[in-house]
Amino acid sequence: MEHTAIPAGDIHAPYQWVVDDESARLAIVPESVADLHKLCLQLDTGESWRLAAITPPAWAGTQPATGGARTDFMADAALGGHRAVIRTSTGVDCADAGIAAHCGRVIGLTTGACVAGEQANVQMAGDIEEPSWNWTPELPVFVGADGLLTQEVPAAPGAVFSQVIGVAITPIKLFVQLRDPIALI
User: Fold this and answer.
1) Is residue 125 pLDDT above 90, yes or no?
2) Looking at 15, 32, 64, which one is the last position of a domain?
């Protein structure tokens, strides 16, 4: 199936299950071995859980929904805040879905702006909030041009690859969960 033919709400949903509390999570009965390692969001605590075993069902905590994996890198150029970045030999630089050499090199997004030569804080997983965002919840967010994020599915000829960087949880909150890029023909 063509990636563009998949309804936007069905593309790369981060959670197989969303439950109110622990008792609802523990009551989940996996349908098949295909459910192994899928994620569950527990709303009362904001925790993400991974299905670690099918029979009996066993859950492994992943990370709280607030915050996430962040690392500092040297900025190769001035970087805007909340921009997708690629890893370079000397640090990080803006990712661009229109540059073939960036396909497979996106590592996360900046948590704030910085100038060349400064440390750039890069969010690689987990939740991040930005009050100026206006995402449609539960839809994927893609790497766009010049590091910008978008909910428009990238398409040729402007883009040479499509990559989900995460999924909108609320209009101002993104769950960063990088997916494999898809080369566009």
Assistant:
1) no
2) 64
